[in-house]
């Protein structure tokens, strides 16, 4: 929780899933940050774990589309420690990006 938020979603070496109601967290290793499509694979990983909101520095268009399709809200522009960013979000200081509110009109399976 005291690690810095990675500025790029798909290149993060791991993801921290936080359950604010329980006060618990789980670290997940990002399985592949080197090859193309890593953002979509990362989206699938966190969606499978039931994430509802993604707090990140920035998120590319493919990942943004995949996250919206999975029903995950995206908050970009985050920096600092994971703990600080989660506290800011819980305090209402960070808001989801407008694009994450509506799934894309068309999505591809590939």
Outline the structure in words.
The protein is an alpha+beta fold and 110 residues long. The chain has a single domain (9-101), classed as Dinitrogenase iron-molybdenum cofactor biosynthesis domain (Nucleotidyltransferase, domain 5). It has 3 helices and 4 strands; from the N terminus they run E-E-H-E-H-E-H. The chain has helices at 38-48, 61-69, 82-90, and strands spanning 14-19, 24-29, 53-55, 73-75. Strand 1 and strand 2 form a beta hairpin. The longest helix has 11 residues, at 38-48. Mean pLDDT is 83; it is low at 100-110.
Radius of gyration in whole Å, from Cα? 13 Å
Provide the structure class. Answer: alpha+beta
Give the proportion of residues in helices: 25-40%
Side-by-side strand order of the widest sheet: 1-2
Shape: globular
Strand proportion, as a percent range, falls in 15-25%
CATH superfamily caption: Dinitrogenase iron-molybdenum cofactor biosynthesis domain
Q: What is the CA–CA distance across the termini? A: 34 Å
CATH fold description: Nucleotidyltransferase, domain 5
Reading the helices and strands in chain order gives EEHEHEH
Strand elements, count? 4
State the CATH architecture: 2-Layer Sandwich
Number of domains: 1
CATH class descriptor name: Alpha Beta
For the largest beta-sheet, the strand count, sense and barrel status come to: 2 strands, antiparallel
């Amino acid at each position: 929780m005291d690690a810095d938020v990675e500025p790029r979603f798909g290149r993060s070496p791991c993801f921290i899933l936080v359950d604010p109601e329980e006060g618990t967290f789980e670290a997940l290793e990002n399985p592949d940050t080197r090859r193309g499509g890593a953002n979509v694979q990362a989206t699938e990983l966190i969606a499978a774990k039931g994430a509802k909101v993604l707090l990140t520095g920035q998120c590319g268009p493919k990942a943004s589309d995949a996250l919206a399709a999975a029903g995950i809200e995206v908050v970009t522009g985050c920096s600092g420690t994971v703990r600080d960013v989660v506290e800011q979000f819980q305090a209402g200081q960070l808001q989801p990006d407008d694009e994450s509110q509506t799934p894309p009109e068309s999505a591809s399976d590939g």
